[in-house]
Amino acid sequence: MRVVFLALFLRTLSFGAEEVCHVGPVTGIAIGENTIYSCSQAGILCRDESSTTFVEVAAPDFRIIDIVAIDDGQLAVCGGLPGTSGIIGILDIASSEMKTRTVSKDLIYALAYSRPTGTLAVACADGNVKLLRLPLESSDKPIVTHKHTAAARAVAFSPEGKLLVSGGLDGVLLVTHLGEGRSPRVLQEHTAGVESLTFSADGKHFASGARDSKVRLHSTDGRLIRTYSGIGMENELAAERLPARVWALAWDDTRLVAGTSKGQLYCLSNSDDQWTLLENIRESIYVLGFDSSGLLWAGSNASLVRK
After folding, report:
1. pLDDT digits over 244-297, tens only?
2. CATH class, range 2-306
3. For residue 48, which of 3, 5, 92 has the smallest C-alpha distance?
4. Which of the residues 19, 26, 154, 158 has the least number of beta carbons within 10 Å of its own beta carbon?
5. Rounded Cα distance, 257 and 207, in Å
6. For residue 218, what are the contacts with CB-CB under 8 A and spacing of at least 6?
C-alpha cells in the first residue's frame, strides 16, 4: 500500500495540485498497510501514517458517508443523494476508478465487509439492512436481511462473517445468524437511537453506542454483559444535562474506545462498567479506527487526528 500512496502523491504533484483537506465531518476511516483513508464532503483522502499531508483519492458526484477496505487495492464506499438514492461504490485505489451501484432510494449510512464471505452489509436510511455479494457488477440482487422501524445507522460483521449486527434510530439492535434461517434476535436495552457498533477481535462480544450516553456490551448469543452509562456526562451540571451521543467505537486486541458528540475519547474497562477519559478534543468524534501499529485515529470536524 505504500507503493499505492507514492503513486497517488506523485500524480498529485504532476498536476500541480494544492494540498487538500477535509470538508465537514470526517465520517469514515479505512486502514490500509501504512496508509489511512478517510472520507468527508471533500471525498476520499489518504495520508501515510508518518505524514501529515493528505492526498485526494477520489471525489465522486455523490456524498460519501462511510468507507471500508476490502483488499489491498480497493475500497468499498457508501452514501448517495438524500431522498433520492443510496449508492455503493468499489474504488480501485491506484487508478481512482470507481464502479457504482444504486441499491436504495435514500442514503446508505454505514457499511461493513466480511472478508471470509466476500459480502457487504449496508445500513439504509429507510431502515433496511441489506447484503450484497461482490463483485459489484454481478446480477445478484441485494438481499434484505431485516428492517428497522427507523433509519439503520450502524452495521457490523463478526470476524468470521457468520454474525451480522445492526443498530437503528429506533434504539434496537438486530442480531442475525447468517445462513441459519432464523429470524433476527431483537435487543432493546438502549433508550435512544443506536449510532455505532464494533466486535471484539476474538469475535466473542460486540459493543453498541447510542444517543442515550451508553455503551452496551453483549456476548454473541445476545446476553447483556454490562452497560457503561453516562458516558460524556460526568462534568455536566444537572440543569444542563444533554445526552452525549456515542457516535464512534473501536476495539483492538485489548482496548474498547468510545468517542462522543461532545468530543471526549474514553477507554472502557474490560472488567467492570467504568471508563477512563483519554482526551477531550472538544470537537464531535464521528469515527474511530486502530491502525496496524495499534495507534488510534479519530475523525472529527474537518480533521483526522492520531491519538
Report:
1. 999 999 999 999 999 999 999 999 999 999 999 999 998 999 999 999 889 999
2. mainly beta
3. 5
4. 19
5. 10
6. 173, 187, 205, 206, 207, 208, 224, 225
